[in-house]
Amino acid sequence: MSLSIQSLTKTYGAQKAVDNLSFDVGSGTITGFLGPNGAGKSTTMKMVSCYLSPTSGTAKVCGHDIIENPLEVRKHIGYLPENNPLYLDMYVKEYLGFVAGIHGLDNKTTRVKDLIELTGLGKEQHKLIGALSKGYKQRVGLAQAMIHNPDVLILDEPTSGLDMNQLVDIRNLIKSLGKEKTVVLSTHIMQEVQALCDRVIIINNGVLVADDPIESLSNRIKGENKITLNLTNNKVNLDALKRVKGVNSVRKNEEGIIIRSNSDIDVRPKLFKVAIDSGWVIIEMKKEEINVEHVFQKLTKEDLYA
Amino acid sequence: MLSVYWKEVNSFFSSLIGYMVISVFLIMIGLFMWVFSETNILDYNFATLEQLFSIAPLVFLFLIPAVTMRSFAEENQKGTIEFLATKPLTDLQIVLGKYFANFTLVLFALLPTLIYYYSVYNLGSPPGNLDSGGILGSYIGLTFLAAVFTAIGMWASSVTNNQIVAFILGAFLCFFFHWAFSYLSLLPVFSGGSNAFIAKLGINYHYSSISRGVLDSRDVIYFVSMIAVFILATLTALSRRKW
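Predict the joint structure of the above. Result:
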């Protein structure tokens, strides 16, 4: 296993930021690390990259223990911290050369050149880091994390604050990296998880709540569809809708009338008929597939339908 | 460690900081030594560098904390310390890399004053009529003093993420360790024999002792242990993140 986390725990005073977390990640996979804000994602990543010490438990990176052998771990890990801290007063090439120097690479200049090409920094390579746009800064952050060709890449929100084009570029880059390396990335954009990851790990309040391959994740709440219905006047008696066969629940919120139904029958024609019979005018009817987003909500929120 | 050292040295000299420090130091010392009527050598009628060695600690008092204030405070504030601490470097390598870079800049400021030595040497009558041994001792003392100030300033920088706090704390501690003990030892309370001990706690006592041209091992041990104490304190401050 390239990355093995063993009952990792971190407490701040009385608060448990990460609570007895364990999982393994093999090489050649991209793992999405999800959780609401404050769930302990960043804390976990900081412990794995030897920035913080765990209160108890440990983790192994390529067989090296983060407590006993932090220097070896750091050699095998590429870490992009949250908010991508960079030395803004350094030039791109100078900075990457500096990082290559820290790692003691022999082929410094060629590595820097390779990384500039790989991350698409060609045009910006002679600029000051402080003068780059956010997307290019993010690329510099990725380049510094990969310069020593690490086996494990830990990326804390690698795509936050990027525009659509940059987003696609960075995702493609991560995807190509994931073919041979172990990539663990945290994010709160669910589409990204669906687009990128082979496996999803969800934590909430520091506790592991789901660890599944992306395909089987949606099975967790299979059997339900969500239909959003909007009438010209939503303030109607909803009992008629509840009586439709296949409808499990009916609720109203600011989006409209939310109907949960069994996924094996399509209840939309019947809903339509009820509306006509009752003299309602439908202005919107939308059926949603259950996706990672819903699983995420279901697992990390007490009340999914709220 | 060398990567960190060169990165820091480069950042001094690719920005204004390095040149500012060197020129401010030289201009201030130069004014006191050659221009101001109270202190200038030309009116003093003695071939000596006394002025340099009495004023330099004062200038270092605010200049060195200004050099060191960004060392860790800036990294803490911008979060780049997280970048540095997750690279294959030990905390000691990071601290020593930065320490020697700061110290190098201070030495670069001090080095040009050797020209003053050359000038005064030639102004003497006959030329060369000055206490070279004493001057060598004073230079060694001043170098040690600068090394201690650098360690103090760097520690002050490591306990905060605010550069102004780092500067004020560093300058205060440099003042405290350099002068406060000598003056405190003069208080009547300590007249019962403990005054000599208290004076020896301060940098000033050991600085003047070395300046006389006698390289006493006790003074060297004092300076080296002061540096070690503050470097260890910096290491502790750096590892505080892990708790």
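The longest strand of chain A covers residues 15-25.
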